[in-house]
Amino acid sequence: MFNSSLAKEMTAYIDLRISTFSVSSVYNDKRTLVLLDQYLVQTGFQGKNLTEDILSDWSKTLSGKSKTVKEKGQSLFLCA
């Protein structure tokens, strides 16, 4: 499902969320992490620490209504 250097961490996070919430309520978290994972692979990110700059640059690549993009970014900032 995930391919970046943070694949194990992302998978563990989703597994933890699923153990706490229903699969359907975790869907948006998973979709957002997939987008971040794809961005990290495309940019060649190899680290384990996401900085605010990396997340900010990633959020600029998101499309959709500004409110939706903001919410996607905020959900990850809250997880970090």
What attributes does this structure have?
80 residues, mainly alpha, 4 helices, 71% helix, globular
Question: For the terminal residues, how far apart are their CA atoms?
Answer: 20 Å
Instruction: Determine the strand fraction and express it as a percent band.
Output: under 5%
Mean pLDDT: 85
Based on helices, strands and strand pairing, what is the structural class?
A: mainly alpha
Morphology call: globular
Q: Please indicate the count of domains.
A: 1
Largest sheet: none
Number of helices: 4
Indicate the percent of residues in helices: over 70%
Number of strands: 0
Write the layout of secondary structure elements.
Blueprint: H1 7-20, H2 23-43, H3 52-59, H4 66-79
Helix pairs in contact: 1-2, 3-4
